[in-house]
Amino acid sequence: MRLELRMYSQDDIQYALESTKILLEPDRRIDTFGSTSFEFHLISELMDSISETRVREGVLHAERPTIIKPESYADFVFEGFGEQAEAFSQWLHENATDLSILKYGFNFRKDKVSEDIVSEPFESVRDKVMERARQASNPLAVVIHGVDDAWEVCLLKFTVEMIGMSQGINVFDFKRRGFL
Hints:
By secondary structure, the chain is of the alpha+beta class.
């Protein structure tokens, strides 16, 4: 996921994470065997203006999850960790068959992002965006209430939550097909 070059302070990030709310969750999750494109609508109140709301819309692309197989763990090197690392390394080699991990990848394409400032109170804009998203009937649509300055952090929070919601389904699908 590419972010603007702007650096956020820890306070900016923490505030964005705490303030982000998913108002309309997608009906679908990350596809196990293909890529998934979520259509996002991110609504934020402008801090310096009264009754102005910014609406950003775009697409988040989630690559299909990949399996990191236990054989990859054989290459782990634990330098400078002492005896405990050697014991852990031994345990890892003995138990690696139970430790497959799913890797997820997201691409945020800025060229797909549009942004409008609407001169209406937040609640009114929120209701209109929610209604438009529901009427479009896109099972991959998400509406997010976020902060204006650190809006990319709000998208990152959504991606992490979507990975968490998708992981169980993806693991089930991989097991059902004999990949795990």
